[in-house]
Amino acid sequence: MSIDKATAAHVAKLARIKVEDDALPALAEEFNTILGFIEQLNEVDVDGVEPMVSVTPMRLKRREDAVTDGNIQKEVLANAPDAREGFFAVPKVVE
Question: What does the CA dihedral 50, 55, 57, 63 come to, rounded to 10 degrees?
Answer without folding.
Answer: -110
